[in-house]
């Protein structure tokens, strides 16, 4: 078994315990999200998500390996280290938070590099809002010369279980593993399309 805490953003971290079955289904779901963005076995992936006590880093690492891709386990932070790997190892894909992607892009420009100096094709950005915000997405895409896709997850469900595909038209949910509903906060009944409500996600496995 494995244990991973939530971020603790709104209170004390809550530990989540994964069995072998949990790990397998989470890896499978994550691999599907990456495949939908275009990740294939011949891709080199710079994993700039944090590994330490945050499940996203190790989860996408395992998912890239499941697909057959080559992983560069750089982890988060250390912008200059990120740039070193981008320039020397020529990854096609970068996975990170939107904030880190912007820091990398701005630092590259400050150092005199541009998208033409990179081999990147696309990136998946989660852990915080950013790629879902049009202006932020455009800035990331301009700085790094890539297609930027939104990534979504919850530690209590799976850290990376919903994402955009190449159409960039909203999140695709893993509906064979999860029931996703928007319900009325008072009645608990599903709301109609376009109405506001509370997001409820129920495990089906």
* Strand residue content: 15-25%
Instruction: Count the beta strands.
Output: 11
* Terminal CA distance: 17 Å
Helix-strand pattern: EEHEHEHEHEHEEEEE
Radius of gyration: 17 Å
Strands ordered across the widest β-sheet: 4-3-5-6-7-8-9
Task: Label the overall shape.
Answer: globular
Biggest sheet record: 7 strands, mixed
Q: Determine the structural class based on helices, strands and strand pairing.
A: alpha/beta
Helix count?
5
Helix content: 25-40%
Stretches where pLDDT is under 50 for at least 5 consecutive residues are none
Determine the mean pLDDT: 93
Explained architecture:
The protein is α/β, with parallel strands linked by helices. 32% of the residues lie in helices and 25% in strands. The chain has five helices and eleven strands, in the order E-E-H-E-H-E-H-E-H-E-H-E-E-E-E-E. Strand 8 and strand 9 (172-173) form a beta hairpin. Helix 1 (20-37) crosses helix 2 (55-67) and helix 3 (79-89) packs across helix 4 (98-110). The protein is globular, with a radius of gyration of 17 Å.
């Amino acid at each position: 078994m494995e244990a991973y805490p939530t971020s603790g953003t709104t209170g004390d971290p809550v530990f989540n315990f994964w069995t072998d079955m949990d790990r397998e289904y989470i890896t499978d779901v994550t691999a599907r999200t990456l495949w939908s963005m275009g990740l294939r076995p011949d891709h080199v992936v710079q994993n700039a998500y944090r590994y330490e006590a945050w499940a996203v880093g190790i989860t996408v690492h395992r998912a890239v390996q499941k697909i057959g891709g080559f992983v560069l386990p750089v982890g988060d932070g250390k912008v200059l280290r990120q740039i070193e790997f981008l320039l020397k190892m020529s990854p096609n894909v970068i996975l990170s938070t939107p904030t880190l992607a912007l820091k990398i892009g701005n630092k590259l420009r400050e150092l005199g590099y541009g998208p033409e100096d990179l081999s990147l094709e696309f990136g998946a950005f989660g852990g915080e809002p950013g790629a879902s915000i049009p202006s932020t997405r455009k800035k990331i895409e301009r700085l790094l010369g890539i297609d930027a896709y939104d990534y979504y997850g919850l530690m209590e469900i799976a850290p990376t279980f919903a994402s955009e595909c190449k159409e960039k038209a909203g999140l695709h949910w893993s509906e064979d593993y999860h029931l996703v509903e928007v319900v009325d906060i008072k009645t608990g009944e599903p709301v109609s399309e376009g109405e506001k409500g509370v997001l409820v996600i129920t495990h089906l496995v």
